[in-house]
Design a protein that fits this description.
By secondary structure, the chain is α/β, with parallel strands linked by helices. The chain has helices at residues 3-15, 19-25, 36-43, 79-94, 108-117, 126-129, 139-151, 166-173, and strands at 48-53, 99-104, 122-124, 159-164, 182-187, 193-199. The chain has a single domain, classed as Phosphoglycerate mutase-like (Rossmann fold, 3-Layer(aba) Sandwich), CATH 3.40.50.1240.
Length: 202
Amino acid sequence: MGVTTRRRLLPLLASLPSLAGLALLCGPALAIETDRERLWSALATPGHVVLMRHADAPGGGDPADFRIGDCATQRNLGERGRVQARRLGDEFRRRAVPVALVLTSQWCRARETAALMAIGPVEDEATALNSFFGRPGERDAATVALRRRLATLPAEAATVVMVTHQVNITALTGVFPASGEMVVLKRDPQGEFSTLGRLPPP
């Protein structure tokens, strides 16, 4: 492995969760459901959360002059990503999945994904969902914030969709999602969440 490749991998490796952290949420990898019909059926019932990586945005990371609130300084959705987001919204509607709330990071590619899906009221959730890519020291605090936010969701609520970033999802669940992929969480009677399965992007 060359020096350049190692340098590119270091931020990603540093963002991955510890094995102990993974065991708290996702359990054995073989237990993760991949049957699309079962997962969509589950989402039609209360007590589920979708952790979604924003739709396809060409490139990686963000420019050095990145600023929240200024999309011109960020890596944004491409046309493929916009199509993905619209198709996902269509799938929620086709399957009549009730959505109580859509939460999103403040990154423009996440906000645009949520807006194009058009499946429910959208709110920013900066502390729990903003990316920490390239800043591995923020991983633990962000993951704790996401766990706390999940704990506030009522068990009887319809599905909540959280549009966020790969590093956030991987830190919590151990799943490395593709752009536009959804990881489905289920809340148990004690208020704890487990990873139920993953739905690939359209």
